[in-house]
Design goal:
There is one protein chain. By secondary structure, this protein is α/β, with parallel strands linked by helices. The chain has one domain. 32% of the residues lie in helices and 17% in strands. The protein has a 7-stranded mixed β-sheet, with helices on both faces. Helix 4 crosses helix 5, helix 6 runs parallel beside helix 8 and helix 9 crosses helix 10. The chain is globular, with a radius of gyration of 21 Å. This is DUF7730 domain-containing protein. InterPro entries: DUF7730.
Length: 331
Amino acid sequence: MSTRPTEEAPINPQVGSKFFSAPLEIRQMIYGYIFPYGVHAYLRQGKLHSSACVEPRANGDYDGGERRDESSDWRTPGPIWSRRLQSSWGPHWKCEEVALSMGRSWEAAGDADMVMLRACKRMYIDIMTFIVDIAAVHVTDLDTLGCLLQEATTVSPGTWTVSGYLATALPLVRNLSVVLRLPLTTCKILESSSDHGSAPTSTTNATAWFRLCPAIARLKRLLRLHIWLDHDGESSWSVVNERAILSPLTALTDISGLDISVSLPHLHHRYETPERHFVKQWPSPPFTIERRLRQRYHVVETDPGRFDVSYQADFPYLYNYYRDLSEDEVE
């Protein structure tokens, strides 16, 4: 019989459980060891679901080579490496495989983390309360983010459901991480819309992005907002007008106590301009900017149904070389 909690039965308070007789602070310390990197919220068949985050360094310098599996060589990608390089979850590609049960080695770790959520509804609600109070909630697409940012669902006492409670709890999050690997065309639409001072009229990712900040402003308990941003093309990030794309964030900087940080790829000094980019010589934006190495391995379709790997070097060009040198060699 499945141990996954059903969605119809009311919650059993588990009054006979020794675990739940422990103080809440002790239980939350235990949960902190189980979910050290937080959880992902994502939509599946129109309902919110959660899965463990298994990526400890999502803001690290990765070029895509670390995603290669044993069935792929460096020129011709197998289906696994191709999928990973094109993942919209960006640096959380391992977490995507956990969420979608793609059968990798780290999936077992993710399942071990999430098994407690399946024990009973009382455990599920206890852990989700910990997650929204303390842990990070990661979202990797604008549809899920829009669902999360809707007003809390009203749930009748005594008839809680797993999906209903998740929809109710997530808008109470304190630490929100938004990871977006947007199509380059979407970035261009955002630039154009910002230049004209109006949001796009079509129902696209661009429209959802402009609605993001007003919705986040309604998260009254939010203390930390981290945004990881990139486009999915081979071109340098420097082709993007990052000032225009991030302009909606300015409205959030007036919220007292909200810490905002943004992770962006390195700029190419030859193409950066203070009008389009956040450069060191100009005044800093009202939020923290962190720079990172951009993905350099990309999947390209050379013929119908045939895919190759393209290595597109980006600034800093010699990063991989210096990364492999010891400190003594660099000096």
